[in-house]
Amino acid sequence: MGVVEGIGARVARKEDRRFITGKGRYTDDMNVVGMKHAIFVRSPHAHARIKGIDKSEALNVPGVIDVLDGDQLAADGIGNLICGWMIHSRDGSPMKMGDWRPLAGDTVRYVGEAVVIVVADTKAIAREAAEKVVIDYEELDAVTDLVTAVEPGAPQIHPVADNNLVFDWTIGDEMAVEEAISDAAHIVELEVSNNRLIPNAMEPRATLGHYDAGEDHYTCWTTSQNPHVARLVMSAFYNVAPENKLRVIAPDVGGGFGSKIFIYPEEIVCLWASKRTGVPVKWVADRTESFMTDAHGRDHLSTIKIALDANKKITAFKIDTLANLGAYMSLFSSSVPTYLYATLLSGQYDVPNIFANVRTVYTNTTPVDAYRGAGRPEASYLIERAMETAARQLDMDPAELRRINFVKTFPHETPVIMTYDAGDFEASLDVAMEAADYAGFPARKAEAKARGKLRGIGFNCYIEACGIAPSKAVGSLGAGVGLWESAEVRVNAVGTIEVLTGSHSHGQGHETTFAQLVAERLGVGLDSISIVHGDTDKVQMGMGTYGSRSGAVGMSAIAGALDKVEAKAKKVAAHLLEADESDIVIENGEVKVAGTDKKLAWHEVSLACYTAHNLPDGMEPGLKETSFYDPSNFTFPAGCYICEVEVDPDTGTTQIIQFVAADDFGNIINPMIVEGQVHGGVAQGIGQAMLEGCAYDPESGQLLTASYMDYAMPRAHDLPSFNVLTTTTPCPSNPLGIKGCGEAGAIGSPGALINAITDAIGNNDLSMPATPQNVWAALNAK
Amino acid sequence: MYATNYHRASSLSEAEQMLAAAEEGKLLSGGQTLIPTMKQRLAAPTDIVDLRHVAELKGISVSGGVVKIGAGTTHAEVAGSADVKNACPALAGLASHIGDPHVRHMGTIGGSIANNDPAADYPSAMLALNATIHTNKREIAADDFFVGMFETALGDDEIVTAVSFEAPDSAAYQKFPNPASRYAMAGVFVAKKGGTVRVGVTGAGSDGAYRASDMEQALSGSFSPDALEGVSVDPGGMLSDIHGTAEYRAHLVKVMAKRAVAAA
Prior knowledge:
The complex is a heterodimer. By secondary structure, chain A is an alpha+beta fold. Chain A folds into 3 domains: 153 residues, 2-Layer Sandwich (Aldehyde Oxidoreductase, domain 4), CATH 3.30.365; 193 residues, Aldehyde oxidase/xanthine dehydrogenase, a/b hammerhead (Aldehyde Oxidoreductase, domain 3, Alpha-Beta Complex), CATH 3.90.1170.50; 318 residues, Aldehyde Oxidoreductase, domain 4 (2-Layer Sandwich), CATH 3.30.365.10. Chain A is built from 20 helices and 28 strands. The longest helix of chain A has 28 residues. Chain B is α+β, with helices and mostly antiparallel strands. Chain B contains 11 helices and 14 strands. Chain B starts with a strand and ends with a helix. A 5-stranded antiparallel sheet of chain B has the order 4-5-10-6-7.
């Protein structure tokens, strides 16, 4: 309280100075003496058998250190890549995990799969030599589309998965749902696809593997959102090195959006190749490799059936979803279309009965895993398009249909195992409708019509789950790890502070927001606080950044460590000031006896802890505390997004007239950073809804959108000026009342946009991306 | 990029000699297509002959109603030229919307038409303006110059030196950009000179830029958007890809043509 740079202050980001002056240090900026460069030879085929690899000519290129293949990797005992979340099918059988070798074995299953690594003095030499590696492929039939993949007779991708089915999973009460459907006064049905996306982080993936033979120790610099998890997985499953002999450093990372959570073949192979060749090995993806090999997102096809009673109250949701996992099961791929998706299928609504069936399938495509929102965008888009469809079918105002079905009391237990702890969905709806001047829309529509344009307006009332996650709960659901977070607060003798956190910042602004928490609690200036992250040698075990968890979970751990630091500081101050510990308060950088003028400066207390000349009997010197925080529940950010568009019927071009985002993120640490997260998230959601569509050639399995010539990213002129608003119900499940804001924009925006466009064109049969061509086709298909 | 030999020409004749001496030489003008193609290892000339320092290829002149633009003139120079804006504002406008600022300050009109990308903007304008393409050997009418997708009438040893055209009475260019690349998915340049109307179309035709003769006929009778109402564009001759089907492109050609006429 009263601290200028504490919680709630619009502090400019501390890290931006180095980023905008080009002083950031990314993995490709790391150089080690003797370092060499790697190029991966990748499969040009979507599905093929490898009959032979001839490396002789490549090995003869001057400057080539070595050319290594999958057999050598396997012979050295390096393990397969794994999926870390076990899902069981409804018949009780475990998911069918096909072998994924870091360098291909006898079969390649998608275009871009790594087959051979070439290590050479320079990248140019490695590239020349890579072209001289001769791989004899026997091409096999490929399948890229998730519907075709599960049809009888489709090409078989993994021997372990009959008909390419990975699992057939359900949640909810099927009988109750069928009963509700048969009793319903109204039934609304809809089929919705959720388009496949390519992440496109600004910084391509990169890694530098360094084996130190003298120490028998490995160091891996990598573009990771969770270096400790990378170390754990590479040690425990891939047999690269034991954890105590493997240091993973994720320095500045230029965006992740989920795609840098996962452990990829390249990190493993470069570490192994470094030991094998005796030189440090660096690999940096080029942009085409990023398109082909960064885990993709989404790619669902779903049907939903809504049952309503005569009062337009929802009595059941029934959902069937096919989800494309690509050629292999990436690290968390199984959790995305199950526990991160189907558990949110109640939306903001009080739905007594829900049943969902999710089938996941292999295809000859890049592996699919978490991407900004990870399952929740798919859930919200499905529910919110269906709600808009229902309103149109029932001839109701879409806001009104939502309003009468909102969850209004908390905690609220859904039929899909979530307990919403807090929220006020009507508040965000009201704020958004007022900001969008919903009442004035009919007049604006008429005015547009007079100009020959089609106006539409659409809602998306989203809810999502962040702050992942209670370890016991996710463990019971199949997670291979706990999802707590750790923090260490080190107060130096002079009172400055280092916070070591397991959260990883790759654009989120943690160096600022985490410091704001410390400033709030201890009253010291932001310049006296450093945030340390991203290095397993510096920071104790942590779980990393994804699922908008760094505030709710990571900062809660810092708060826990601060509690302990404060408690010890108070004990010391009470001793020095000869006061009762319960009378000590910490305020504005001072440790005081409440109601008196007796006080010590913060640095006097920390110095006393380290000189240890006069500490209470039995107290250890030093002022440094650690906390592991395991959340008691998910958090539930929610809000209402309203989008208004104008469609040019001549070309199908959509112009976004206004976009209102009213979010409830609970308590907010730095409103400016929150707004930035919403802006970025909404831009990404608009990208998905209007522009981004990953496409494969159905015959050859080639990635057609492998560059920016064919993959459309949102540009500034595609986007309106966002109207970002907040309402607040503090989260009761963590000490700071934080819910999380990193993904909401991407979760809530696609539905609002497509609902607006379908309203404008009067045809609900429109798939993302709503490119001009697709909108024009829908407009003319009526 | 594969290794290549770089040669900087300081005159047209020197460029001719360098090109003749090369085993598999390529001319480099703005490099906005050639360099990315080489970086992707899709082109591997043994030698590149840089034309950017050849003074004879520079400059814009207007004389007696004839506009002449040196082949080495960048898009930004065309876009910013008071002479071009005065004589043919539609062409300046076209140049101002090619690519992005980087492309416009590097890419040249000669490079663009010699490459004849089926989605490039300039070829449609050259056709509609009935331009003459000047080379180190001869003069070629635009109608004869653009042969097909990435194909021109240029010989192996031929270098575009300039383009020239008579300033039209009125002209306009309308393009519908590809959502990803921003190249034209349908770009229509309409030019009227006396009683003659010429219509150049880019981005849409499966053989590259072409003249829409039925539109020209309709517009010669009445230069108004309504005159195009009865003209149908055959999807049969259109490109088709993930961004636009042949039907959509055919539709867009007509929409862009009407808008160009309205703007002219």
